[in-house]
Amino acid sequence: MLFPISDDDSKLSGPAYFTWAILIINVLVYFYQVSDPEMTYRWAMTPKEITTGVDLVSPVVMTAEGKDIEIPHLPGPSLIYITLFSSMFMHGGIGHLFSNMLYLWIFGDNVEHRFGHIPFLIFYLVSGLFASIAQILVSPDSVIPNLGASGAIFGILGAYMVLFPRNKVNAIVLYFIVSMPALYVIGLWTVMQVFSVFGSIFGPPQAGGVAYMAHVGGLIAGVVAGLALRSSIRSEPDSVLYRQYQSDPTARKLW
Questions:
Q1: Could you give the domains of the chain?
Q2: Cβ atoms within 10 Å of 153's Cβ, excluding its own
Q3: Can you give the pTM of this predicted structure?
Q4: Do residues 53 and 195 lie in contact, with contact meaning Cβ atoms separated by under 8 Å?
Q5: What are the distances in angstroms from CA 131 to CA 128, 221, 224?
Q6: pLDDT per residue over 19-69, tens digit each?
Q7: Residues with a known catalytic role
């Protein structure tokens, strides 16, 4: 078990306004979902709805694990493609929400400072979109609603791995707290996701679970964006992070 809990400069990066705003929006949307359970079946992204352009407005029966299972559906937005974005602010449970928001809190501030506030917001949304597209490509006829910020969060992880490979990340491994470079921690997560993708593709159909291909799609989007940004910046730009390095001789430079 590997569970990141903090990074070494999370308290020194200064305000990350869009990271905080995204986190607050996700929490508020989740509590709205709890108060109105029908919202999940109206605004979650369903691959078959996106590939056909047809909104599923009533329950659909599918066979999974040798049993017929009814998948709830309700009328969604008039433009069904909006669910590609609305779904990335929704979650399937408090544990799902907590883990995603924890990773956003740990890794999002650094990435936001590196990209800049508005570019970071665009990057976040595009990563989530690529994540959904990746999941749709491997299961275009799926009638299972997909939701969660995981794809966009994995985009942040991919960018963090490229932009801050040496930053220390504190993680729980079994019963111990260890400190390792981000490249190792996120790289190990990547390997785990790839193996899970093969299991989800070649395994028997399931009526729920984790959309691992969305994780991989978001991660790839983040790595590509991080590489593009890194190649365009030849020297450390003035930023909260740069001033931190100037005042703290023990901090490592990024480039």
A1: 2-247 (1.20.1540.10)
A2: 29
A3: 0.85
A4: no
A5: 5, 8, 13
A6: 999 999 999 999 999 999 899 999 999 999 999 999 999 998 887 666 788
A7: 150, 215
